[in-house]
Amino acid sequence: MDAVEIKNLSVSYKGKKVFEDVTFSISPGQLVGIIGPNGAGKSTLLKAIMGLTSVDCGEIKVLNSPVSGMRKNIAYVPQRSTLNLDFPLLVEDVVMMGRYPHISWWGFPSLFDKKMVIECLEKVGMYKYRKRQIGKLSGGQQQRVFLARALAQEAELLFLDEPFAGIDMTSESMIINLLRDLKGEGKTVFLVHHDLNKAESYFDSLILLKNRLIAWGSREEVFRIDCLREAYDGRIVSLDSLKGLMVVNG
């Protein structure tokens, strides 16, 4: 059973095609990077897989089922720039949101739910900040909290959109190591990423987009000079020239 299977997927936004005829499948237990230039459709692909945006055509299956029936098994960490961080929520309240799929609409968090929140905050090194308002944290600390919320959901698939944008190296290192641990537990993680310098070392599989699928598969199959030149309009003359080529908000 594939973690995600996509067939002939096309998506438009305001009448303009974002990408078309995308087909790929990802087996479970992988750390998958979605890469490509600005405007390639990376974030849109992520949202389409989760059912958060309408599609023109195509088939999407998550764990061999339509995504509509699998939402409890999907955790999402959106771009921080899309979130209202001024809302007066404490860190522990944000993480408790990850437990909502497990709590009946008439019920209250159980002792187990509260224990899960504590454990997830400890995993990301944010337990001592549990009573702090989320907007008062640094970018790296906020991203750790949002990851803790995703962990609290106990989902089989995690989708992260640009989680390393604007955060410190300590937080980035902690997050990628934690994601590797989740992969080791059999979870499947999709991550929109912009830094090609680290893409080859971070991920097991890669999806390379430029308004269509340029390549997908193992790092060796995708991280090739011909594929990267096609995606980045020939700006990459060699793999050594990747330094400094960072494409954001795709």
Tally the helices: 8
Strand order within the widest sheet? 6-7-8-3-9-10
**Number of E strands:** 10
Query: How is the biggest beta sheet arranged?
Result: 6 strands, mixed
Helical content, roughly?
Answer: 25-40%
SSE series: EEEHEEEHHHEHEHEEHH
- What is the approximate shape? globular
Strand content: 15-25%
Distance between the termini: 29 Å
Mean pLDDT: 89
Low-confidence stretches: 246-250
Which structural class do the helices and strands define? Answer: alpha/beta
Radius of gyration: 18 Å
What does this structure look like?
This protein is an alpha/beta fold. It has eight helices and ten strands. It has helices at residues 42-50, 91-96, 111-123, 139-152, 169-184, 196-202, 219-222, 225-231; strands spanning 4-13, 16-26, 31-35, 57-62, 65-66, 74-77, 157-161, 188-192, 205-209, 213-218. The strands form two sheets. Strands 6-7-8-3-9-10 form a six-stranded mixed sheet, with helices on both faces. A hairpin with a 2-residue loop joins strand 4 (57-62) and strand 5 (65-66). Helix 3 (111-123) crosses helix 4 and helix 4 (139-152) runs parallel beside helix 5 (169-184). The chain is globular.
